[in-house]
What we know:
This protein is mainly α.
Amino acid sequence: MARKRRSFSSEYKERVARMVVDDGLEVSVVCRDQDLGETAVRRWVDQLKAERTGQPGEGRPLTAEQQRIRQLEEENRRLKEDKELLKKASVRSTGRRNSGHEFIRRGDEAQGFPRSPIQAEGDFIQVGL
């Protein structure tokens, strides 16, 4: 019968990985004592070793330092995206079309309706987009 999938906190994973790396216990012994699968524990050990050398490792970070680094990287990525969006918006708003302050010059000025992109000039209709 298959085991129910369990989830573990980063602190627990780090503690188990330290048993192997720092205390020198065998993976199989730790797995038996903690009722864990060897594949997961080996992954946690590899993750801890990578994080200790300054590498990001794979999966969720185990150490608090790596967790903070990932959080700051995500925040940095979001800020860069926001900056690019604002740049594009400011470039687009420099033209007459996006100023938002133009009103219809005839009877609707008091109501504050934006200028219509369709202009009637004699027998022709001009569409400005």
